[in-house]
Amino acid sequence: MKVDKSTIDAQIKEVENGNVVTPKGFQAAGIYSGVKRSRKDLGAIYSTTPANAAAVYTLNQIQAAPLHVTKESIAEDGKIQAVIVNSGNANACTGKQGEEDAYTMRKELAEQFSIKEEHVAVASTGIIGLDMPMDKISSHIPKLDLGETTAYAEAFGEAILTTDTFKKTTCFEAVIGGKTVTMGASTKGSGMIEPNMGTMLSFITTDAEVDQIALQQALKKVIDQTFNCITVDGDTSTNDMVLVLANGEAQNEILTEAHEDWDVFIQLLTKTCEHAAKLIAQDGEGATKLIEVEVAGAKTGEDARKVAKSIVGSSLVKTAVFGTDANWGRIIAAIGYSGVEINPATIDMAIGSITLLENSETVEFSESEATSYLQEDVIHIKVDLHLGDRSGKAWGCDLTYDYVKINASYRS
Questions:
Q1: Active site residue ranges
Q2: Local structure of residue 411 (DSSP, 8 states)
Q3: What are phi and psi of 109, to 5 degrees?
Q4: The whole model's pTM is what?
Q5: Three-class DSSP category at 355
Q6: Domain total for the chain?
């Protein structure tokens, strides 16, 4: 018998100041190698034992070389023990040399940590189309000093950033099978965000013992409800990857879909991914506000998420939020072109606690009150389609002058 979702939610606790090395058996490192002009740009995560691994990648048909290497590594035996990541150069659209460079990064990290080559994942983020400065990376891999304190996790978190304005860390725990299981994440992403998956990378560590096939299925399911529900600018990158490592150091009974606490693990993974996804949306390039759209009354959860993402992805909605303009016509238009079958006569809509529409008819509201609300840092838009009992959310940010400035000068 499945436990009520609210009961499961109560079992998940956020770990204050937790991070990617909080789960047992994980270490991290981050250093400056010279790939970028300044700031750390080379990082690594290491597990004391090979971890069962699962990953989801960008749906962009043009995929960067590191993704090919990581897919091959996981396909070997489903395990990853270490990850190497660089920022400043995406190693995308770099041909045969780019593939060789990604394999070189895998080989050299394996040698540095004395592990199997096939147990190394590779990730890169940065400018597309430039040859990798392998002299800088190769000479600095031996300088990757691993540690398990917050300082090491923060160094890794900085090393994976590009146009991000802050490090994105999250950590939750739950009791599963009588053991305390912890899950931490380090994430980057700010622009070129339209997951399915934007330039976004997320590295999730957990000391849970989880069957590898079940872990992959769980990640795919959770991604659709979290990372795939955010958008900043509608661009899907060549380098996106969410990677989960489960090393079993919590010593719980192995988790599969048949385990009585499987739903607790799913919610632990969902909480971790949702929090990381919202941090990306909050840090959208040039953004001043996080926008959360919740759609209720849909026929399916997929329909609800699709409508929510259509709203939060609308440039007109995003600019209206930036300009503190309660122009609900832009929201209703985004609902209409979402591709979901709706009844145009049964839509309710609100921003915050301010009702704008009931059964698709205008409700008198205070423009000044709405303007005041839209000045807040987090904007909630609520829609009820009155077609079913399913709901879903999506997250994004406002569209500002600074977004253009940042991307106009990205290479200069």
A1: 199
A2: T
A3: -70, -40
A4: 0.82
A5: strand
A6: 2
- pLDDT tens by residue, 147-156: 999 999 999 9
- Say yes or no to pLDDT of 40 above 70: yes
In the numeric block, which tokens belong to residue 65? 């070389």
CB 26 within 8 A of CB 203: no
Task: For residues 308 and 303, give the distance between their C-alpha atoms in angstroms, rounded to a whole number.
Answer: 9
pLDDT at 251 over 50: yes
Please indicate, yes or no, whether residues 277 and 294 belong to a single structural domain of this protein: no
What does the angle CA 201 – CA 381 – CA 273 come to, to the nearest 5 degrees?
Answer: 25
Look at residue 299 and give its three-state secondary structure: coil
User: Which two tokens mark 23?
Assistant: 């789960």
Residue 296 sits in a domain whose CATH number is 3.10.20.340
Residues 301, 56: Cα–Cα separation, whole Å? 20
Exposed, middle or buried by CB within 10 Å (0-12, 13-18, 19+), for 199? buried
Residue 242 CB contacts under 8 Å (≥ 6 apart), including other chains? 55, 56, 197, 200, 201, 202, 204, 219, 223, 227, 273
- Two tokens, residue 158: 């900085």
- Is the domain of 176 the same as that of 303? no
Query: Is 146 within 8 Å of 132 (Cβ atoms)?
Result: no
Do residues 82 and 110 touch, judged by C-beta distance below 8 A? yes
- The answer to whether residue 263 scores a pLDDT higher than 60 is yes
- Residue range(s) defining the domain that contains residue 385: 290-408
Report in angstroms the alpha-carbon separations of 282 from 8, 96, 269: 26, 37, 20
Domain boundary among 247, 282, 317: 282
Bridge partner list, 396: 291
Bridge-based pairing of strands 241-246 and 42-57 is antiparallel
Tell me the C-alpha distance between 177 and 88, whole Å.
Answer: 42
Q: Which 8-state DSSP code applies to residue 259?
A: S
Alpha-carbon span 241 to 243, nearest angstrom? 6
